[in-house]
Amino acid sequence: MVGFLAQRVAKGVVVLLAIVVLNFFLIRLAPGDPALVMAGEAGAGDEAFIAQLREKFALDQPLPSQLGAYLGSIVKLDLGYSVRQQMPVATLIGERLPATLLLTGSAFAVSLSLGVLLGALAARRAGTFADTAITGLALLFYATPLFWVSLMAIILFSVRLEWLPSFGFETVGAGYTGLSRALDIAHHLVLPALTLGLFFMAVYVRMTRSSMLEVSRLDFVKTARAKGLTEGVIQRRHILRNALLPVVTLAGLQAGTLVGGAVLTETVFAWPGIGRLMYEALLQRDYNLLLGVFVVSSAMVLVFNLVTDVVYRAVDPRIEVA
After folding, report:
1. Cα–Cα distance between 32 and 285 in angstroms, integer?
2. 229, 250, 214, 224: which is closest to 116 by C-alpha?
3. Which residues make Cβ contacts (< 8 Å) with residue 196, sequence separation at least 6?
4. Angle at Cα 246 formed by Cα 245 and Cα 247, nearest 5°?
5. CA distance 194 to 129
6. Which pTM does this prediction carry?
7. Could you tell me how many helices (H) and strands (E) the chain has, helices first?
8. CA–CA distance, 183 with 170 (Å, rounded to integer)
9. CA–CA separation, 162 vs 169, rounded Å?
């Protein structure tokens, strides 16, 4: 297992460096000059001031030099300095990252647990009304745009019923501490986590259902039935366990997608995570902050994939290290 983890970590580092280089050039090729934006906001658009800004933030250096300096700082775990926020990028991301991890982790847990549960129920009741209702609901959530679901949820649960807050991380000015603050944050988390998780839940429902139906037709399941095992034991130990392999693979791939989906959810619900921070950095042409968010997001995706490989191997010990 140690060699397996070392191999995966080494590959992840190489992939991360490739992503950093690619993102660096893509952002530099994007239209817009941050020096002009900063000079315009400062009310000083003369050439001398703009040249001074470019020199101060090394924007006047050739791209290879800028890339070399940036890679050197990344190796030292230094994500640079935000020229717009006037703070280290690592500090800005560190303040926002817990909120994003809480949101994406909750959405992932909700989508995976409900998706597998409803998918298994649909497969067990294949051809019945329950199967039709579950697959129809999954198709509805899969086909509905995330932003529309978010807005409808706000209108229904916040505006009409007044059950849940429509935006924010916690009640501003309430001064909650301890358990009261945790409950207040959980109250604010319900809507964004559910809306973000519904789309992915629909995918897991369909994947679990189809995979279980496929496994249920295999010979070893027929053998288990011939041995006289109860249907519950056959479903749990023989069908569901083998059917989970493609679901685990998909879950690992979509764990990274959740981070991308969080950008829209955080923007709609004013959730103070790195997705919203990335959106603000993009509007402000804050190169260092944008690259820093990309690096952290990419690292999170690679970690999710590593965890997926470990879980996949634990679920099916027959899998060898590739």
Report:
1. 7
2. 250
3. 103, 104, 107, 146, 258, 261, 262, 265
4. 90
5. 25
6. 0.77
7. 13, 2
8. 9
9. 17
pLDDT of 159-217, one tens digit each? 888 888 888 888 887 778 888 989 999 999 999 888 888 878 888 888 888 888 888 88
Extract the tokens encoding 129. Answer: 């009304």
Give CA–CA dist 219/236, Å, rounded: 16
DSSP annotation of 156: I
C-beta separation of 96 from 86 below 8 A: no
What residues of the chain score a pLDDT lower than 70? 1, 30-45, 57, 255-261, 312-313, 315-322
Specify which residues 87 forms β-bridges with: 82
What is the 3 state secondary structure string of 210-251? HHHHHHCCCHHHHHHHHCCCCHHHHHHHHHHHHHHHHHHHHH
pLDDT of residue 42: 61
Query: Residue 253 in contact with residue 151, Cβ under 8 Å?
Result: no
Token pair 């501003």: residue = 172
Residue 251 — φ and ψ, nearest 5°? Answer: -65, -40
**Neighbouring residues of 26: CB distance < 8 A, sequence distance ≥ 6:** none
Q: How many residues does the chain have?
A: 322
CB-based contacts of 260, cutoff 8 Å, min separation 6: 275, 297
Collect all residues with Cβ–Cβ distance below 8 Å to 176 and sequence separation of at least 6. Answer: 170, 183, 184
Query: Which 8-state DSSP code applies to residue 124?
Result: H
For the chain, how far is it from start to end, CA to CA, in angstroms?
A: 12
Residue from 163, 137, 133 nearest 149 by CA: 137
